[in-house]
Predict the structure of NADPH-dependent conjugated polyketone reductase C2.
Amino acid sequence: MAEITTASGDKVTIGIGSGTSVKDLKRGNPTGENQDLIVDLLRYAIDSGFNHIDTAEVYTTQPEVGRAIEGYDREKLWITTKYAVSSSIIKKKSFTPTAFVEQALQELGTGYIDLLLIHSPPKTGQDYTIESLWEELVEIKKAGKVRFVGVSNFNVEQLQKVMNVSQERGVFPLVNQIQYYVGSDKLPIVEFSKENGIIVEAYGPLTPLRTPNEKLDVLLGQLEKKYDATKAQILLRALLARDILPITTSFKKHRLEEAIQTYKVDIDQSDLKLLESI
């Protein structure tokens, strides 16, 4: 995996997401108390060793991320956010990526964004095509308010369209963020991304803990005893070994500590191959 670093040069860690249950807490009951809970969770994650925070327009958590990072050295943090062409979930405030960046900078309380992603490919009939949307992200990056640009939930055909524009404009996607976990069947897009120098970020990396898979369950049970590690740590470590950067989320502080301690877990190549074969 190409190493990505914060503005200060620190290697970017596993990401702490502000989507899934975190965003649901705010959108379901946007009280001051719940917003404070999100801020407290993110600050705890930073204090535990995370330097990578993932948010998005549709999560509505950018203001909480902004509050959470107050008082920390901004250049030692990596902030990712995502632009959505449209949404049936929230009332959009910004309808172009350019306008969204200004909104995000204000809500995050920062002078720059480390990584701006297209949250999902535009659909037929929307205001943007994949090509025109990427053209605008290229211009945003050149303006200097975003360090890197990338995509999320793109398949091979969609990512190839981005690459075609990139070849002409000289700005390539740094990341393709997709749902991925041990046992996933999305190898074509993973391989295509890697072949083109694009880092794969994985959301939902702990899905196997909630989805029964007898073969994997047995193997995880064996490995957690062998390495004195949790099943979650084994799943995260397996992705890191494949040069895939996980994004994880939890409201339980001990789960966050567990996740960031994954870097201390060292799994034999033979066992990694067993996990990869699932």
